[in-house]
Amino acid sequence: MRDTLYSNVPFKLNEMPHHYGPHVHLVGNPFLLTQLATLCSKGVIQPQINRLVETLYVDLVKTVLNAEFPRKNVSLPTRMIDSTPQGLYQGEVIDPQVRVVTVNIARAGTLPSQVTYDLMNATLDPTVVRQDHIIMSRMIDAAEAVVGSEIGGAKIGGDVDDAFVLFPDPMGATGGSLSTAISLYKNKVPGTPRRIITLNLIVTPEYLRKMTTDHPDVIIYALRLDRGLSPPEVFGTEPGALWEKERGLDDRQYIVPGGGGFGEIMNNAYV
């Protein structure tokens, strides 16, 4: 007789209500928001910042695994199998044969992608997990405002056919860099991904507009929405209800309230 208790394990994502569409998920997690608030606080530098980023991404990746990845039913012997034929775990696990590509967008995305890569290797069959690398830089004008982004180099280890392609990038500001990187995978890399998912710590309304316009198929997971430069009538409304009025970027395209330049602080490189 087989116990079916764990043959269909329910998982319900806890997320903030919003009006940005079904592919946007603003994760509602008090613990992670507390850690993120500390991460963004003035005076938080190395080594604390990397430890916080790692903590945040471990939980964010777990959330995506639970919510998005397919499962399969297994019958696995436990250590009790030698003493009783009932010593089997029978139930769902995350399908270990799902292909995954995590993309390191240097430099702020290097540690998040490595955390994602390590966790995927510990959860799935490592032979179907890969990490790619892209060097990108913002293009700025004479007033130091961001006007675009360009790819300086890339190391892509193969096709992405039927793979989950993950972009763990902490700050979703303008969306320009990430949109360019996603376009590279859609247009230049062989194969059709099963899903493309971004994993962000902070996003702005401008980022969400850019991403949902350029890539409406992309799934976005974020811990926090920052819209601190919006007019007063926006505050207190559900995110996206007054999307056209929401603003989270200053004139130099920095997020407000934000956390400053994560890439600079994480690498002790203020250039």
TrEMBL record:
InterPro entries noted in UniProt: PRTase-like, PRTase_dom
Pfam families found in the cross-reference section: UPRTase
Keyword Glycosyltransferase: yes
UniProtKB keywords: Glycosyltransferase, Transferase
Domain Phosphoribosyltransferase: from-to ranges: 32-230
Single Gene Ontology MF annotation: glycosyltransferase activity
Name of this chain's protein: Uracil phosphoribosyltransferase
